[in-house]
Structures are given as structure tokens and as C-alpha cells.
Amino acid sequence: MTINRGCSLFPRRTWLPSSARPADAYRRLCLGAPKRYYLAVPLLLLLIAPLLRAAERTVKPNILFILADDLGWSDLGCYGNKDIKTPNLNRLAQTGALFTQFYAAAPVCSPSRAAFFTGQYPARLRIHSHFAGIKENVARAMPQFLDPATPNIAGLLRSAGYATCHVGKWHLRNNVSQLADEEPIDERGQGPTPASYGFDFVGSGEPWGAAGPKDQPYYRAKSTERLVDETIRFIREHRDQPFYAQLWTLVPHARLNPTPAQLQPYAHLHPGGPDFPHASAREIYYASVTDLDTQLGRLLAVLEELGIAKDTLVIFSSDNGPEDIHVLNAGHSGVGSANPFRGRKRSLYEGGIRVPLLVRWPTRIEAGRIDEQSVVAAIDLLPTLCSVAGVTAPQLPAIDGEDMSDLLLKGPRPRQRPLFWETRYATSGEAIHQSPHLAIRDGGWKLLTNRDGSRTELYHLEEDPLEVDNLAANRKDLTEDMRKQLLDWSRTLPPGPIAPATGRLRHPWPEKPAARPAATPPR
């Protein structure tokens, strides 16, 4: 059938029979019709135009969600780091949007991941810390795994026709398989696999925990390459349908042991000359981040190769702030940066919970945009992805996050509800990073406190992002209002024990020697 492409009424496919001539049909429809019909054509076009625009909006994008492990806010070149080489993630920022006020829902692994995945505050799910062995989880009143019945991104998108995959670290169940010598492995302990949560394909994970297999010293160092290969395979197989690919990397979580080839770009940071036997902490950490960037560059290149980059929403973030060098497995590498913020992993100060967020969708998001106004959080991911995919998200109280799709596509706007945090364990490292265990952010203000009322701190983050000028005594009404909101929220959470040192400042200080008893005078 010949189609007159000069006539916008007839796209490449038409309902006309093959014997019909489009030009003649146009004349019959318009020129040869009574005037009332001829005049109706523009009106018809006006009526159907909104429908066509709506149809365009409901096209389901592919979604690629990449989550790094323990990557600090300023561990990328696009966030101001001049030392780490991250050209591919820098390019992702240049071709998409970068957010400076994005928050994880917790300053440590498992609860943070639960929030990304479910749109709920992890404390509601009784996930307060990382999933450990059975006995430790029981002692902390935690479940052994995330309940598979909890609404989550993968299950919701799969129900809407998306192919789904999870590749990489999971850590939403206990790690009893890593403790086989100490505790029995059984179904209750190990828990369901990621496939139980709505994934069509599940790739490699994190066997043997942070150390990796004993006979593979570079397992973690080479893990991103393997995980990217698996993700690419999934994308190639599902390129002709909407897909949700969830890639959660193992690095730069310690224990890091980069290969000699990965270390080479940072040879200039080697202390003591080439014959010195130890690599510096910066060499080790930077090499690991740069390899992460290199492998992700391969993944992003495949989207271009397949011609689907423009239809793919790419999201990159981190689960929490950088690990502290005082933690045993990071003692040789814990120099990730949250600069300029106070706080690191496990802390509710900004450096523990404010993390990078890069978002790219070439046909919908303005390239090169830097959003320094919008306050966005991990709990917003589920309702936002449901919105852009045309999926009905569960309603409150099941979901704590906000649909931020308008913010992504149109530009900054104020957040509608405050953000809340709770931890139930002590913070590692220097005293400057040891935060109270409850926090709220509302507008430009952030308040931290302990449940017993101690250590109440109020900061205006726009003027004091380093959280060093406590205004609680100067703004008593605001402090009391925010503290009440925070404590009211904390009372809605499931009960459970709080570690004794939680929220306390702990630091060494010289002490006077104990007074000796007076000597008994001789008789």
C-alpha cells in the first residue's frame, strides 16, 4: 500500500484497505465532504491531540538502577573530587541531572536497601541494622529477612509487563551462610532468594561476605566486571520489552583488594617509592572506585549500541556514606569522602546519609542540570518509578515516599513531608561523627536528638551544611515543634532494644590518676 507521507492524517500504518488511495481518501474526507464535516476535521484534531500526548507520556521507559556500596557524597569527579578518576559517571551527570540533596533512609546497608526497594522507612519493617546471623538478628528484634509480601519495585513493575532482574549484593536476608561454622543453615535462617520478590533473573551476589572466597583474593576487585556482564546479557535478551534492571555493586565496600592493573593509575600516590611494600589507603580506595566507573561505562555504552539509551531511565546512587577507617575491614582503605559534611557510615550527620544521585532519561530530563534545591530521598524511588512506568503504587500508610516524577521532569519543588531517621546502634570512629540516634529534616532545618531528650541539636543546613552551629537554644519554639514531630513518629515504630551506647558521645580524655589512700604513719 502506498502512503502519502505528506499528509499528517495518515501515519505509516493506516486502517484503509490496500485498494484505497490515501490522497483520494483525504479528498473524500475533507474536500469532497459537506462543509460541516470539513470544518469538523480541525476540531477532531484538537480533541485527539491531548490523547496523543497522553499516549506519549504512558510509554514505559526501561529502568536501570545502579546502587554502589559505601560510596561517599564526594567520591565522584562530578561531585567535586579532583583526585578520583570517574569519567563515565561524570558523563552520566553531564547528560542527565545531578542532585546535591539526596538522602538514604539509613546510614547502613540493609535498612537503606529495604527503603530503596519498598518506599518505606526501614524501621517500620523492623530492619534497624545490617542483617547478620540468626541469633544477632533475634537479639536486635529484627526479622531474618525482608518479608516477600511487602510491596516492592520489582514486583510492581513485573505486574505491569516489565522484565526484571537483580544482579549483585542483596543483603535483605541474614548472612547465616557465611557463619556455617557457628550456626545451622536452615530455611528460616537463610530466607527467600531475590527471585521471591518479583525478579525474572537473579545474577551473582556476594558469597562469603565481605572477604570473598578464600581461593579468589581478587573476587571483589573483579566483581563489578562480572556483574556488569550479567546485566548486559539480561538487557540484550530483553531489549524489545520494557525492563527493570537492578544492579547493586559490591564495591567500594571493604574489604578492598584491587588488582595491580587497577592500582596502576594511582601509582603516584604510592608511599615510600616503588619498592615500598604497602599501597596507600588512597591508592586502594581510588582504584576500586575507578574500576567501578570503568565497568559501568561498558554498561552505558551497550545502551547506546542497542539504540535504547534515549528510552532508558538510568539512576545511580549509593546506599550510605563512606566507611570509617576505624572499622576493622576498612583499616587499610577507609578514606572515602563525604566532604564537606560531618559524619560517615552509621552516622545520622549529613555525611552518613547524604549520598550521590545521578538520573538520566535523554528524552525527558534536561541534560547537565544540577538540582541544589530539591530534597529527595530513597523512599521516593518506588512511587516515582511506578509513576513514570504507569503503575499504580500502593497508597499510604504502606508507602512513606513521595512521587517525585514531576521534579525529575520539570524542575525543583519543595518537599511535601518531612524526612525521618532512626538508628539503634552506636556510631564508629571519631567523636565528631557520633550523632544522636533520631533525626528529622523539614525544609531547610534538621534536628537530631535522642529519645530520652539528650543531645538535641538544630541546624539550618542551607547556612550550616557542616552541622557545627547548634541553634537549639536560640530557636526554642522551632526546636520543640520539630522534636515533637520526631518523637511522635518514633512512637509509631515497632518496639525493640536500643544498644546502650547509641546516640552517646564516646571519646578518650586524660583522667587524673585515682587518689592513693593516705599512708599510715609508723607507730
Structure description:
It is a single chain. This protein is of the alpha/beta class. It is 28% helix and 11% strand. It has helices spanning 22-31, 35-57, 87-94, 109-118, 134-139, 153-159, 187-190, 223-237, 260-263, 281-305, 350-353, 381-389, 405-410, 476-491; strands at 62-68, 97-99, 102-103, 163-168, 201-202, 243-248, 312-318, 357-360, 369-371, 376-377, 419-422, 438-442, 445-449, 457-460. The chain is globular, with a radius of gyration of 27 Å. Residues 1-33, 52-57 and 178-188 have low confidence and may be disordered.
Count of strand segments: 14
Biggest sheet: strands, sense, closure?
8 strands, mixed
Arithmetic mean of pLDDT: 87
Radius of gyration: 27 Å
N-C termini distance: 127 Å
Structural class from helices and strands? alpha/beta
- Strand line-up across the major sheet: 5-4-6-1-7-8-2-9
In short:
The chain has 523 residues and is of the alpha/beta class.
Q: What topology does this entry show?
A:
Elements: H1 22-31, H2 35-57, E1 62-68, H3 87-94, E2 97-99, E3 102-103, H4 109-118, H5 134-139, H6 153-159, E4 163-168, H7 187-190, E5 201-202, H8 223-237, E6 243-248, H9 260-263, H10 281-305, E7 312-318, H11 350-353, E8 357-360, E9 369-371, E10 376-377, H12 381-389, H13 405-410, E11 419-422, E12 438-442, E13 445-449, E14 457-460, H14 476-491
Parallel strand pairs: 1-6, 1-7, 2-9, 3-10, 4-5, 4-6
Antiparallel strand pairs: 2-8, 7-8, 11-12, 12-13, 13-14
Helix pairs in contact: 8-10
